[in-house]
Predict the 3D structure of the following.
Amino acid sequence: MASIRANARKVICIGRNYAQALPPTPTALPQKLTISSSDHVTELNNVRPKQPFFFLKPPSSILPPNGGPVLAPQGVSLHYEVELGCIIGKEVRDLPETDSAALDAIEAYCLSIDMTARNVQEEAKKKGLPWSIAKGFDTFCPVSDVVPKTAIKDPHRVDLSLTVNGESRQSDNTELMLFRIPRQLSDISSVMTLEKGDLVLTGTPKG
């Protein structure tokens, strides 16, 4: 497979897509996952979406492995968001919202960090402007090597973690997604054609 950056026509990012799991209450009965309102949505003072919310980053923002450091523009407050990336394997439009259709459209996975100029984003949000100026800087989308599809049996049960200078900043599981990958791909492809090589970032947990 060619590099992710060479193949990607666009990078589509899902925003506000993670809840937080609360520790189970001690009991002899089996436990269900409990969701808290304290998550990446509320930590940024956002409203929880009723449908997948997505935005674009340019392919020029992709930083491949060993491609050098993230370049921080002067005066920018950098923020990191670790995400599971889905690499699209074929052209799809109006994809059905089913696990089989979604998995068939995905060629491979990767780990990615959606870098954000947080102070620039906050100013854009206040003015009702698009986020591209805060998300689209060169090197603002570091990616891992390609992860073969066979290496991830269930993309909704993947542990994600991120450390900064040895300190844990994010650690959660993709089972906490508010909207699962089939819904994400279905909604995106109802608006724009997903093309072979496109990269879909599926959202980030709290932290």
Residues 181-191 form the longest helix (11 residues). Residues 96 and 186 are 6 Å apart (CA to CA). The mean pLDDT is 88. The chain is about 20% helix and 30% strand.
